[in-house]
Write a structure and sequence with these properties.
globular, nine-stranded mixed sheet, Urease, subunit C, domain 1, alpha/beta, 25% helix, TIM Barrel
Length: 566
């Protein structure tokens, strides 16, 4: 018997005509079958005094950055009205390649959330680090016709696009020929260089951080993904767009990264809608940027609008401006009401290959030494130091004098200069990059992470080699996660799905992470989100100084650099 529902007496927000009017909605077998007056039949939902809007669409996110499995992520965001997500599995692809992407596609079939994927375009991100896998032309060809794949993920290699790099241009062509979208990533690109980038087939951008940048990219025909996530919050550019009375049809919302605490305390796309309205955006326009606009961009023709023949992904709201959700309907089934999920998820068994991704050679404390020859004990050398900047993922490259003992350069903990190491964790190469870092404030012990963009090797910061080694060994024992060591006291958060995600519920992950943050505060760390900050220090594409398993890397000069100067 068909699953039939009739929603009665609600005020429909029509994302096509920008109207609000009373009507009934009939639903059968996951589709909207009618919109009109006095519709009968099926089980009735009385929406008197409430608003009916299409389910919300997340246009660009790396679900791995939530530290949650796809299943637990779905449980976290459905109550916030998210019914469709476009995921760029860039992180898991760097660890597990095409098998990691296929694994997430399989898991997505087991949950009520509609999940689509883009093919990561830049795996590995650079040749200056050791990654787990490669997504090349053969992998793109294999994936592109999968019905869960809707495009090519953010093309971060904009220098390659502009210079005519054959491989990235071929990836773009394969996806365009399949009739699918190509997402962009070109922070700060402007003028003639932007023209060349767009001309290659790039269709969207989520890295705009200023009003002028956003407007130029809109004027040149790009779909603007206005980002408001955990790491980067750029919703303020809406003010500039609104002030010029520009059409918002080419604007969509995206979070890029969303961390557990923000999912719990703020929400997801619903949070962006509320903030956009508070900034002066018309409520219907704000809803359109999370519904029909992304649906049209991604060619999801049956989503984003309440109309006959469309997917029955529907929210019932108590009000628009606060976006208070009463019910969530996905594919014609009520999955959330009375402030709780009522849909049972299927059991998904995580295969062994996704839980055994930490493979390193046995280490000793001495492996973290930074050696220098011909310098007597007590003398000083000039050392390059990565200086962390609060509230930014940029770093500074600074020089500091550090003492030498037994031909080993010693960190200056009192001055805030700590040891940092990156341990290759995919192929047992034995690579360990070492250097110095400042800005964390750590006074004792060490902490480490297997989340280290983009290749996700193990990255650790500490005051001494013993605690550094303890942290790395803890991560190996957990098969991924975050670790803190202070002598015999060792704490961890297990992220054993590709060393990036946990199987646990969002609140459990968040509570454990908060405990680790509190412990680091006790150990002297003053910087906010220290594990997130640490994860970006291995990314050799963001200025100025980074560390990979192959060594210290000067991004400005685009080459490796010696730790000890001269």
């Amino acid at each position: 018997m068909p699953n039939e529902i009739v929603i009665k007496n609600g005020a429909i927000v029509n994302t096509c005509t920008c109207e609000i009017y009373k009507a009934d909605i009939s639903i059968s077998n996951g589709k909207i079958t009618g919109v009109g007056e006095n519709i009968k039949g099926g089980s009735e939902i009385n929406a008197e005094g409430r608003y009916i809007v299409p389910g919300l669409i997340e246009s660009h996110i790396h679900i791995e950055s939530s530290m949650l499995s796809l299943t637990e992520f779905a449980r976290a965001v459905i109550p916030h009205g998210t019914t469709t997500v476009v995921n760029d599995p860039h992180e898991i692809a760097n660890v597990l390649g095409i098998d990691g992407i296929k694994f997430l596609i399989d898991e997505s079939k087991n949950i009520p959330l509609n999940v689509y994927f883009t093919i990561p375009s830049c795996v590995p991100a650079t040749p200056f680090e050791t990654g787990g896998k490669t997504i090349g032309i053969p992998e793109v060809k294999e994936l592109v016709n999968n019905n869960k794949i809707i495009g090519l993920g953010e093309v971060m290699n904009f220098p390659g696009v502009i210079s005519g790099d054959e491989e990235i241009l071929n990836k773009i062509k394969i996806v365009k020929d399949a009739g699918k979208v190509v997402d962009g990533h070109c922070p700060g690109l402007s003028g003639e260089m932007l023209d060349k980038y767009i001309s290659a087939g790039i269709m969207s951008e989520h890295e705009a951080t200023s009003g002028s940048e956003a407007i130029e990219k809109l004027r040149k025909g790009m779909v603007l993904m206005i980002r408001e996530g955990s790491a980067a919050r750029n919703l303020g550019i809406l003010k500039s767009i609104i002030s010029k009375n520009l059409n918002l049809d080419a604007c969509v919302f995206a979070s890029d990264d969303r961390h557990p605490s923000d999912l719990i305390e703020e929400g997801h796309i619903n949070h962006i809608i509320r903030k956009a309205i508070a900034l002066g955006t018309d409520p219907i326009c704000a809803i359109r940027m999370a519904t029909i606009n992304p649906a049209r961009y991604f060619n999801l023709k049956d989503k984003g609008i309440i109309a006959p023949g469309k997917d029955a992904d529907i929210l019932i709201l108590n009000d628009i401006e606060n976006f208070e959700i009463d019910k969530v309907i996905i594919s014609g089934e009520v999955v959330f009401e009375n402030n709780k999920l009522i849909k049972k998820f299927g059991n998904f068994k995580y295969p062994g290959f996704v839980k055994n991704t930490i493979n390193i050679k046995p280490l000793s404390e001495n492996d973290f030494d930074i050696k220098v020859d011909g310098v007597c004990d007590g003398f000083e050398v000039d050392a390059r130091v990565i200086e962390v900047i609060e509230h930014e993922i940029l770093t500074n490259s600074i020089k500091r004098k550090l003492k030498v003992k037994n031909n080993i350069v010693i960190p200056d903990v009192k001055a805030g200069i700590l040891k940092i190491g990156v341990v290759e964790r995919h192929h047992k190469t034995g690579n360990i990059g070492t250097g110095f870092v400042s800005g964390f404030g750590l006074k004792r012990g060490a902490f480490a992470s297997s989340v280290a963009h983009d290749s996700h090797n193990i990255i650790a910061v500490g005051t001494n080699n013993k605690d550094l080694l303890s942290c790395v060994n803890k991560i190996v024992a957990m098969q991924g996660g975050f670790a803190i060591a202070e002598g015999s006291k060792i704490h961890g958060l297990k992220l054993n799905i590709a060393g990036l995600m946990s199987e646990k519920p969002v609140r459990e992950v968040n509570n454990k992470l908060n405990l680790l943050h509190e412990k680091l505060k006790e150990m002297g760390v003053k910087i906010q989100a220290p594990f997130m900050k640490l994860s970006f220090l291995a990314l050799p594409v963001i200025p100025e100084l980074r560390l990979t398993d192959k060594g210290l890397f000067d991004v400005e000069k685009f080459r490796f650099a010696d730790v000890v100067v001269g």
